[in-house]
Amino acid sequence: MDKSIMIWNKVISHTGLFQNIISDRDPKFTSALWTNLHNLFGTKLSFSTAYHSQTYGLAEIMIQTLEDMIRRFCAYGL
User: Fold this and answer.
1) Could you give the CA distance from residue 26 to residue 59 in angstroms, rounded to a whole number?
2) Dihedrals φ, ψ of 68, to 5°?
3) How far apart (Å, rounded) are the C-alpha atoms in residues 52 and 41?
4) pLDDT tens-digit profile of 41-68?
5) Its Gene Ontology molecular function terms (predicted)?
6) How many structural domains comprise the chain?
7) Cβ distance 24 to 56 under 8 Å?
8) Collapsing DSSP states into helix, strand and coil, what is residue 33?
9) Which residues of 8-31 are buried (b: 16+ CB within 10 A; e: fewer)?
10) What pLDDT does residue 35 have?
């Protein structure tokens, strides 16, 4: 739960709250951390269909965007 609160304080409070995350069932987004985040923020986690190239691309873009945002906020010590 501590990491969930840190992500809220350091990232989402600056960028705004997401409403839905589309995941390709990557363990990053099915972990206890992300389950806590979804419960804390009231957001929804949607899973893409296996081997569906269009949703796979969307999930990969979203993952990369989130990783970039978190990396930048950590680099600036926010």
Assistant:
1) 9
2) -65, -45
3) 28
4) 788 888 777 666 666 677 678 788 888 8
5) RNA binding
6) 1
7) yes
8) helix
9) eeebbeeeeeeeebbbbeeeebee
10) 82
